[in-house]
Amino acid sequence: MLFGILAFIALASFFGLVLGYAAIAFKVESSPVVEQIDALLPQTQCGQCSFAGCHPYAEAIAAGEAPINLCPPGGENLIQSLADLLDVEVLPMDDEEDSFQGPTVAVIIEETCIGCTLCIQACPVDAILGAAKQMHTVIESECTGCELCVAPCPVDCIEMVPVKQTVKNWRWPEPQYNANNKEAESIFTTLEHVLAENTRP
Amino acid sequence: MNQPLPTSITQTIKETLRHLWSFPGGIKLSGHKSLSNHQPISTAKIAKQLIIPLSQHIGHASEPIVNVGDKVLKGQILGYASGPVSAPVHASGSGTVVAIEEHLIPHPSGLSALCVFIDTDGYEQWVECSPLISDSSSTDDKQRTVTHQSITTLSHHQINQQIANAGVVGLGGALYPSAAKLNTAEKMHTDTLIINAAECEPYITCDDVLMRQRPEEVILGILLLKKVIGAKKCLIGIENNKPEAYQALLNTISGYNTSHTEAQIEIVQVPTLYPAGGEKQLIQVLTGREVPSQGLPMDIGIICHNVATAAAVYHAVYRGEPLISRIVTITGGAIKQPQNMEVPLGTPIRDILNQAGLDEDKVEKIIMGGPMMGFSLPSIDTPVTKATNCILVSEKDELATPPPAMPCIRCARCSDSCPMSLLPQQMYWYAKTRDLEKVQDYNIFDCIECGCCSYVCPSNIPLVQYFRYAKTEIWDDERERNKANIARDRHEFRKERLEKAKQAKAEAAQLRKEKLAKKKALDAEKAKEKEGLNQSNDKPAKSSSADLIQEAIARAKAKKAQQQSQKKNTDNLSEAQQKKIDDVNERRRKKTDSEEI
Predict the structure, then answer these.
(1) How many other CB atoms are found less than 10 A from the CB of residue B187?
(2) How far is Cα of residue B385 from the mean position of the Cα atoms in its chain?
(3) Are B489 and B451 contacting, i.e. CB atoms less than 8 angstroms apart?
(4) Which contacts (CB < 8 Å, 24+ apart) does range B43-47 have?
(5) DSSP 8-state assignment for residue B398
(6) Which residues of chain A have a CB within 8 Å of the CB of B497?
(7) Which one of A15, B12, B141, B216 counts the least CB within 10 Å of its CB?
(8) pLDDT of residue B231
(9) B496 touches A: beta carbon within 8 Å
């Protein structure tokens, strides 16, 4: 009896130790859903989704408190990938009339700048350089185009300009089918349907 | 020298017996090469203004080092290479820099890039060139041996530096800086040099005429490349539709092969099948080895260079001349005298078209490159660059305009013709629906964009256009993702920084508060001590600060009342003091009186 108890205690503690060790040594790092959502968001930190940055929005989506269609910079592609990730339905963009007009960067009109540092405080990614009573400037490569610096400027010297297209960031346009092809395609799809119907057992 | 030597005859026999492999797919195309490959290489007239783009290669654009108003000589450096994968850019004529600004460049996007504008003075005055080996244009065998021996005395670093300084880039179309490519040879244990002389694309003959008319330059360039790489084997792959070029190279080579065994270069004719001139296809045909998926020839110990690149290397080493001109094929139905022209880089395409005789009524399309892989030029006011191998000006019905695309019928002709053994029909499907992950699963980045699939498609689907589109979309996505990651890091850092600043502020405030409290306590203690000393012990010790304040207020009030009732500093005066004051007052009074008088 005593031997049995001791044996079981020994076995239990042995397996306990092994499992405890395995739990630490072989821990599977699964990225929580918030981080996965955050990885998809464009990180402009613009707050157009009404949350204070991309991470809070990701948290809200994960908690089911926000729909997936609030991010204009992410666009339709983001909605698509979020829908894929979360296995929910694709929604149309929330704010269609005020839709996103392509990436922009902030530019400070340097003659007008009075060096008030208000924009520096507003910038979510520290992309504005300057000091009190010194002219400020935007580090173009770091600017996310969130427009948060535009409102605080007391002299309206910040402009949003579209990101310049260069040979390096140029993209081939999507090949276009013309009108008669659309027709042809629709005929074909019907044909395919008919074929599919006929071949079904 | 036109009679082949006995050794070259044996060589020919050896070549004929050489086993060749083949690549999958490929298509037979009519060459249209005889249009332009009979005339000798002509020279372009000096343009009034040269427009020299600062980015004529893969990688970073070069940094301009000249200013507007500077006088430049031919061959003078305009911009240094900026970064490991970059190449310098040189002036292709002497004159004055009149502007450094954006201008349309020959690129499918029709976008502009930074260019240096030079108004030529027509003197064509060269900058001082420093060749590594003195030029020997002599064709006699003894001289050749001497030349070849002088190559062996050079170190490969020396040669490579010269190539880098001359701004030589891959002239086959990839525009990869040659020196950067050669630098990796040592690391990757490269043992084979393959020279691409296939020139498989229809219409283009610039490499063909180069080999026919300047075989010496090509072979000497190849020997230099071989020396830099330290390659044991060297193969020249040439399509069998260029017998004249083959013969010319063979004749030149035979001199070297007899004079020096180390100089052994094999020249191999490969069947004419588009795209045999693709780097990976040529390697497969010549060696039977396949470049791994998304890999480079270097991964299997091979380096591939174009013949025109070899000639540019010759110019750099033997003459010290940088790459400032290239041979351009000007051909097509709307050109009166199709020909190959040696054109200084930066010459406006309009100039060379006019020189070759442009039949303006016939012009339909102006294409840079060949009909398979070329693109329509956005404007003929763009300059000739290191990439410009051919300007094809087609007349009506010369190049078929694709009829409207029809749906895919899954005939799989595209995959049969694909030289990379890809599945274009699948890639098309995913590219069309913008499923960028799936399209990468089908190895879209192995696509060489040869256009065979589009060519054979019975439904006229612009397949290769879809693949180009998908590739740039994927790159764009990657850029966006990188940018987002940087923005996230910066945002997190900022949050952390603000948090820290807040904490530091709070701590400082706390510290100040504590200090103040301490000081107060200390003051109170001092005051207490003073009280204890000055006054008798009848007053009870006051410890609370409220009492202290009350006391201080009372003291202040008392003082104020005293000040109001009496004049300052004049109470309790001794007699002597009072007398002194009176004296002074008297003196002052007298003085003012006398002044008044």
Answers:
(1) 8
(2) 14
(3) no
(4) B43/B341, B43/B342, B44/B341, B44/B342, B44/B343, B44/B344, B44/B347, B44/B351, B44/B352, B44/B355, B45/B351, B45/B355, B46/B93, B46/B120, B46/B122, B46/B124, B46/B344, B47/B93, B47/B120, B47/B344, B47/B346, B47/B347, B47/B348, B47/B351
(5) T
(6) 126
(7) A15
(8) 85
(9) no
Chain B residues close to A169, C-beta within 8 Å: 476, 479
Instruction: Give Cα separations from B41 to B112, B341, B526 (angstroms).
Output: 30, 5, 105
Best of A38, A140, A143, A167 to mutate (most B CBs within 10 Å, chain B): A167
Chain A residue closest to B465 (CA)? A175
- Contact status, residue B371 vs residue B331, Cβ threshold 8 Å: no
Q: What is the CATH number of the domain that holds A124?
A: 3.30.70.20
Give burial (CB, 10 Å; 0-12/13-18/19+) of A118: middle
pLDDT band at residue A199 under the 50/70/90 scheme = very low
> Helices marked H in B288-379 — which ranges?
307-318, 349-356
Q: Which domain holds residue A143?
A: 104-162
3-state secondary structure B164-195: HHCCCECCCCCCCEHHHHHHHHHHCCCCEEEE
Q: Which residue of B has its CA nearest to A189?
A: B407
Question: Tokens 């013949």 belong to which residue?
Answer: B307
Distance from CA of B82 to the nearest CA of A (A): 16
Clarify whether residues A75 and A109 are in a common domain. no
What is the reported pLDDT for B537?
A: 56
What is the count of residue pairs from A and B with beta carbons less than 8 Å apart? Answer: 85
Q: What is the largest CA-CA distance in chain A?
A: 93
Range of the domain at B412: 407-529
* B479 interaction partners in chain A (CB closer than 8 Å): 169
What tokens were used for B420? 């990379």
Rounded distance, CA B277 to CA B283, Å? 9
Mean pLDDT of chain A: 83
Establish if B2 belongs to a structural domain: yes
Tokens of A140: 């173009």
Q: Is residue B467 part of a domain?
A: yes
DSSP states of B54-110: S--SSSSPPEE---TT-EE-BT-EEEE--SSS---EE-SS-EEEEEEEEEE-SSTT-
Amino acid identity, position B277? G
Which two tokens mark B47? 């343009």
CB contact under 8 A, A169 and B406: no
Q: Can you tell me the ipTM of this complex? A: 0.74
**Total domains in the fold of chain B:** 2
- Give the contacts of B332 (CB within 8 A, at least 6 positions apart): B35, B203, B338, B367, B391, B392, B393, B394, B395, B398
Helical ranges in B535-570 per DSSP H: 545-565
Residue segments in chain B with a per-residue pLDDT below the cut of 70 = 1-17, 135-149, 257-263, 535-544, 563-572, 592, 594-597
- Establish whether the linkage from the previous residue to B275 is cis, with ω within 30° of 0: yes
Query: Residue B414 sits in a domain of what CATH number?
Result: 1.10.1060
The DSSP letter of residue B262 is G
CB contact under 8 A, B494 and A142: no
pLDDT at B1: 42
- Count of domains observed in chain A: 2
* Burial label, B391 (beta-carbon count in 10 A; 0-12, 13-18, 19+): buried
Q: Which of B320, B343, B378 is where one domain is finished?
A: B320
How confident is the model over B11-27, as pLDDT tens digits? 555 555 678 899 999 99
In angstroms, the CA B357 to CA B355 distance is: 5
**What predicted TM-score, i.e. pTM, was given to this entire model?**
0.79
pLDDT band at A201 (very low <50, low <70, confident <90, very high): very low
Distance of CA B568 to the CA centre of its chain: 86
**CA-to-CA separations, B47 to B54, B68, B100, B393, in angstroms, rounded:** 18, 19, 17, 21
The pLDDT of residue B347 is 95
